[in-house]
Amino acid sequence: MDITLQSLVFLFMAAVMVVFSILTVTTRRILRAATYLLIVLFCTAGIYFQLNYAFLGSVQLLIYAGGITVLYVFSILLTSVQGSKGDRLGRGKFFAGLCATLAGLALCLFITLKNRFLAVGSLPGELDVKEIGYSLLSSDKYGYVLPFEAISLLLLACIVGGIMIARKR
User: Is 46 buried (19+), middle (13-18) or exposed (0-12) by CB count in 10 A?
Assistant: First the structure.
């Protein structure tokens, strides 16, 4: 078995993602959880770039790692007391979370082992960015302009709600 540099980079990013994903859900400080989530999102973008999906990696960096994480941090800083910690997790909630984690792991393993996936080399090339842009902003049957506008209104409502909650204090 030949280990290439690409395999080593993938294994490193996968290990970083696993470690920081666990840290994200186990830390008691919410601002640290948002920072750990940012690192996970950066590694996800790195894997997209490694698969030669430049557009998807760029979207991951700009929207998720950039915009959504900044929105999380903005909301956290507006609504929480400085240095606040999360509540201790009870045994019942811990057991329920553990059961949900094991069920999700079993489902992922079942889907992965049951299906035959195409090799990466046999997939068609990446779509042109111009074609993706026309598809995203078109208003025809398969266009995405309506969901895009709905999500932008939802994010605006979240920001206004966070500001209103912060003003009441």
Answer: buried
Q: What is the pTM of this model?
A: 0.62
Entry field: residues in the chain: 169
Task: Give the domain ranges of the chain.
Answer: 5-126
Question: Which has the closest alpha carbon to 40: 54, 27, 28?
Answer: 27
Architecture of domain 5-126: Up-down Bundle (1.20)
- 23 contact partners, CB below 8 Å, separation of at least 6: 32, 33, 36
Mean pLDDT for 154-165 is: 79
Q: Please say whether the beta carbons of 37 and 72 come within 8 A.
A: yes
Provide the percentage of residues in the chain whose pLDDT is more than 70.
86
